[in-house]
Specification:
about 190 residues; mainly beta; UDP N-Acetylglucosamine Acyltransferase, domain 1; 8-stranded mixed β-sheet; 6-stranded parallel β-sheet; binds coenzyme A
């Protein structure tokens, strides 16, 4: 383990986790073999699976779950509060009791390009790929490539399982992704 890392006693680190310098971890869980670059912060109640690569300057906030084998590029920002405020009525600084954490899931094998911002309440599907600098506002289907602000569907990855979004919609889940052509349609 490197110098200049701040790891709170409540952090659960799997075996062989690799940490660069200037990392700040508290109340989170990091799976085995995962590698964290410099200046990464992971907040409490965030969970990162095994065999992930989290590149430098990325912020992973409370409410984020990253499954196994996920790549996160440099300077990726996650969000957990859609309508943030500094203060409550009356002007006192807000505390945790004043707002509710919103969750985000990055499914197994997905990749998120550098500089992307991932809004809360979205799921990035298995093996999906988010382009550099994207702002992801809706669910990303498995094996889809999306990019831009707001991120739009570009194509499915060639070695993906197929192109019918119905195949990717888990029971009881409404696919929120509209797609560039609106092909997915279910919102
Ligand atoms: C999105 C990405 C995966 C390429 O996917 P692709 O399917 O091969 O896309 P293409 O290069 O064929 O481009 C398709 C279209 O998307 C656009 N595009 C590609 N990447 C984009 C991005 N990050 N943001 C916005 N638009 C993008 C292209 O300009 C092109 O637009 P056009 O159809 O109007 O000409 C790649 O550009 C990317 O952003 N990768 C992430 C790299 C990264 O951050 N690595 C981190 C480690 S260094």
């Amino acid at each position: 383990m490197s110098d200049h890392v701040a790891i709170a006693p409540d952090v659960k680190l799997g075996s062989n986790v690799k940490l660069s310098k200037f990392i700040n971890l508290y109340g989170c869980e990091i799976g085995e073999n995962t590698k964290l670059g410099a200046f990464v912060e992971v907040q409490k109640n965030a969970k990162i699976g095994k065999n992930c690569k989290i590149s430098s300057h990325t912020f992973i906030c409370e409410g984020v779950t990253i499954e196994d084998n996920v790549f996160i590029g440099h300077g990726v920002t996650f969000i957990n509060d859609t309508y943030p405020r500094a203060t409550s009525n009356g002007g006192r600084l807000q505390t945790e009791t004043d707002w509710k954490v919103e969750s985000t899931i990055v499914r197994r094998g997905a990749s998120v390009g550098s500089g992307a911002t991932i809004l809360s309440r979205v799921t990035i599907g298995e093996n999906a790929m988010v382009g550099a600098g994207s702002v992801v506002t809706k669910d990303v289907p498995p094996c889809a490539i999306v990019a831009g602000n707001p991120a739009k569907f570009i194509r499915f990855i060639d070695d993906g399982p197929g192109t019918d979004p119905a195949d990717y919609t888990p029971p009881g889940h409404t696919l929120r992704w509209a797609g560039r052509s609106g092909a997915f349609g279910k919102r």
